[in-house]
Amino acid sequence: MDAQSRGRADEIDPADQWVLNPRTGHYEMRPDHSAAPPQAQPTVASPRRPGTAPTAPSPSVPKPRRGDGPPGGRRGGRSRRAGGAGDTKRRRKALVVTGGALAFLLVGGSVGFYVYYEHLNGNLNVTDIGNAGSGGFKKDQPVNILVIGTDKRSGAGNGGYGDPDSVGHADTTILFHVSKDRSNATALSIPRDLITDIPVCPTKQPDGSTKDIAAEKGTRFNNSLGQSGRDPGCTMRTVKELTGIQVDHFMMVDFNAVKNLSTAVGGVPVCVEKPVDDKDSKLKLAAGDHRLSGEQALAFVRTRHAFGQKSDLDRIKTQQQFLSSMLREMKSKETLTSPKKFLSLAEAATKSLTVDAGLGSISKLTGLAGELKSMNLENITFTTLPVRDNPNDPPNRPATVVVVPAQADPLLQMIREDVSLTEVERKEKAAQDAADSEARKKQDALLQGDRAPAADVRVDVYNGGGPPGAASTTLTWLQNTKGVGKSGNLGNAPAKTGTTRLEYAPNQAGQARALADMMGLPATALAMGTADAAPKTPMKLTLGADFKEPGAPLSAPQHTPEGVQRIEADKVTCAK
Length: 576
Known about the structure:
The protein is about 25% helix and about 20% strand.
C-alpha cells in the first residue's frame, strides 16, 4: 500500500495492525486486527541550499499489487513456510539491503507475528533456475547475488514507460559481492548495451520440462533475460561466463520496486548540481537538494538525458548514487526506530521481488539478512565494469559498448579473490601489513638482481593443485612462448598445495628471477634454499590451487585500476 492511501477503511496498512506491548517490549497484532485511525501524511521536505527551489510535489504513486487474500494467504506454489520469530533486538538489526533490490526487516517476537510472517511469504515470487546458481552461499565463503532490474512495464501506472510489450530484459544489472568475512561488499554494474556472448541456457518451461535456449554470440547483454524465453538463470550464466564469478542467487525487481521502496522510507535524498527538465523521463528538478519518492524516484533512476554525457553509462552512475542514498536512508536512525517504516519496507520489498528457490522464503531472506546486518556503509563500493564505445558501431553513432580488458581484468580479479575496493578496508589492511614490513622487504629483495637468459633457465614443473593438465600446458607455454627449452613436465606433485611455489638454490637466483617475471610470481612464491645446486640441476616449480594459467598473476591487485569509476555508499554525491 502506498503512503497516500493509508488509513482507508477498505485497505488496511499492515503496519497499522501492529502495536507495541509495553509489558513485553514486543510488537503484537491488535486484538480486533483493525487499522489505526487515519492520520494525515505530512509532506516530506528536504533542507534546501541557498538559492534553490523546493521540490515539486510527487505525482500520485500507483498502489503496488496486493497479496492474494488476507495475511496468511499464499500464492499457489510460490512460497514456503518460514521459521519462527527470534530475539527482538537481533531482528531489529537484521536489515537486508542488496543494491536496493531488497529492503527488509522483521520486527517483533510475538506468536501473532507469525501470521504476518506467512503473509510476506505469500508476496514473494519464486523462479526455478535449475543449476544456474551455486546451490546456496556458505558461511565461510563470499556471497555473490545478481540484482536484476527489468524494463517490463507490468504493474499499475507503468504502461506508459517505453515499450509496453517488452518481455522484460536485463535493463539494470548489479553483481553484489559480499566478502568472505562479511566486512565489505562490491556492487558491480554491468552495462545493458555491452556486447557479449550468451551461453546455452537450460530454462524451465510451464509444463515442468527443461528447454535449452540456444547460445548467442556478440549480442547485447540485456538479451540474456526475456529474449527467446530466457529466464534469470540465463543472466546468471552469462555473468559467470563474462566475469569468471560464480553467482549464488538472483533477485529481480520491476519499476514498482523503486516507487514503493522510496515511498516506504519517506523519500530518498538526492542532490543535483543544475536544473533538470527531461521530457523523456518526466524528471523536473531545480538545482539543489531533494527528497524523491514514487514516480519522481523512478524518473530519477530512469533518466538518460539529464546528467553527464547523456548516456546509459551516466544513468548507471545516477542509479548508484540513488541506491547509495537509499541505503543510507534505510540504515538511518529514523528508519531503524520506526516499526511502521519497517513493515512498510517489508511489504514494498516482498511485493516487488522475484527470487530463486534458494531465497524463496522469508526465513531464507532473513538468513541472508543475518549475513549482512553488521556491514558498515563505508565498506560498500559501487563500481561499473570498464567499457568503451564499440569500434564496430557506425561512426559518430555509438550504440553499444565493449569491455576494456586492461581495466576490467584486474578489477574482476580483485572481486574473484575477495579484495575490497573500499578505501577504509585498504587503509586497515595497510596498517596490518606495516607490522610485517621487514619480512616483506626481505621477500622483495629476492626479486632484486640480474636475470638469467631464458635459454639458461632450467625448471621441472609439477601440478600440485592447479587445473587438470596445468603442468603440461605450462611446459608448452614456457618452451614455445618464452624460450625456456630446458624445462620438463614431472606430472602431479606428491601432495596438493594451495599456493604456487618455486624452489631454487642461491646460485640459481638469476634463473628464479627470470622465471618469476615470466610467470607473474610474487616474491612470496619464491623459496630459496641454503646450499648451491650442482650444475644443470633444475629448479622445482609446483603449481598450486591459486594457479589459473601460465603468465596470469597469482595474486589480485591491491588497488583499484586507474580510471575505474567508484562510488562509496556512505558518501553523498551530487548528480551532474
